[in-house]
Amino acid sequence: MSHQMHHPHAPQAPMGMPPQQAARNGLGIAALVLGLIGLLSGLIPLFFWLAGILGLLALIFGLVGLGRARRGQATNKGVAVTGTILGVLALIASAVGLVITVTAVDQAVKEVNKEVDKALEGAEAKPKEGGGTSAKDYKGGATAVYSTGLNVTVSKPSAYQADEIAVGHEKGNKSYKVTVRLENKGGKEVAGDLVMVEARAGKDGKTAERIYDSKVGSGFNGTLTAGKTATADFAFDVPAGAKTLDVEVRPGFDHKGTHWQLTL
Questions:
Q1: What are phi and psi of 180, to 5 degrees?
Q2: Which of 91, 111, 221, 229 is deepest in the core (most CB within 10 A)?
């Protein structure tokens, strides 16, 4: 009886034969989709950032997909190539969109700055009859006329006797009072609470403290509507030897400050 008997198990495949694998086409398809969406995003203003992100992903996925196709792991080489190209185009569109956006923003900022400068120039006071040598150097009694229609007048200084309970007055100093008159000839309301009146005295330009007592110091309040006039007295504490008093009036944030150079 022969010892040669068939093995009960099925014959095995020869060694070295790789098992069949499914084509790995996912990255190529992803590159195509992302590249297409990225390119379309690049055509929409302000979406350059999305185009850049999607374009970069499409480029990376496309290159990896091409590598798989070369190794025989993927069968969609054309799709991967197209996705890679679309990724590059999306990146280019993103760069162009960035330049356009930056340029547009820069232009918009310049336009806004121009309008702000115009508004500030428009709110600058211009000399009226009897005014000083420049828009920021008026004499006592002169009226500064703003283009907004607001007229500001500061009177000549007069000696002032502060109360015993006055705040801001030092013994040995002199006190001077000025009257500030606001006349609103424009159509825009002026907030009295925002009108600032300050002063500096002498050649050194030291701050002249504002005096508060029972007669002066309250300043302006309420709202100055179109066609209305408001008047308020202000007193300042001045060193005995000072010969000049520089009074600045700033009628709110939308008007430039204007100066009156007063002789004491």
A1: -105, 130
A2: 91
| CA 57/CA 51 separation, integer angstroms | 10
109 Cβ partners below 8 Å, 6+ apart?
none
Residue 169 and residue 237: Cα distance in Å, rounded? 5
**Other residues' Cβ atoms within 10 Å of the Cβ of residue 98:** 15
Tell me if 92 sits within 8 A of 120, measured CB to CB. no
HSE-CB for 240 with a 13 A CA cutoff: 4
CB 142 within 8 A of CB 132: yes
Angle, CA 176 vertex, CA 170 and CA 178 arms, to 5°? 140
d(Cα 28, Cα 244) in Å, to the nearest integer?
84
* Type of residue numbered 166: A
The per-residue pLDDT string of the chain (264 residues; one tens digit each, 9 = 90 and over) reads 444 444 444 444 444 434 445 668 888 888 889 989 988 988 887 888 898 898 899 999 989 888 888 888 888 888 889 989 998 999 999 999 899 999 999 999 999 988 887 766 655 666 554 333 345 679 999 999 998 899 999 999 999 998 888 898 888 899 999 999 999 998 888 999 899 999 999 888 889 999 999 889 889 988 999 999 999 999 999 998 899 999 999 998 888 889 999 999
Give the amino acid at 228. K
Crossing angle of helices 48-70 and 26-42, in 10° steps, is: 160
Q: Report the predicted TM-score, pTM, of the whole model to 2 decimal places.
A: 0.52
Is residue 161 classed exposed, middle or buried when 0-12, 13-18 and 19+ CB atoms within 10 A define those classes? exposed
Q: Give the Cα separation of 110 and 112 in Å (integer).
A: 5
